[in-house]
Amino acid sequence: MSQAVNTPDQEAWATAPQAAGTPVTGSLAGYTRISRTALNRVLAAIAADAFSLKASQVKAQATDDGGKLAIEVSVPVKVPSLIDIAQDANLLSRSGGDLVAQASAARRVLGARATELTGSTVGRIDIDLSNTITEGKAALQ
Question: Whole-prediction pTM value?
Answer without folding.
Answer: 0.71
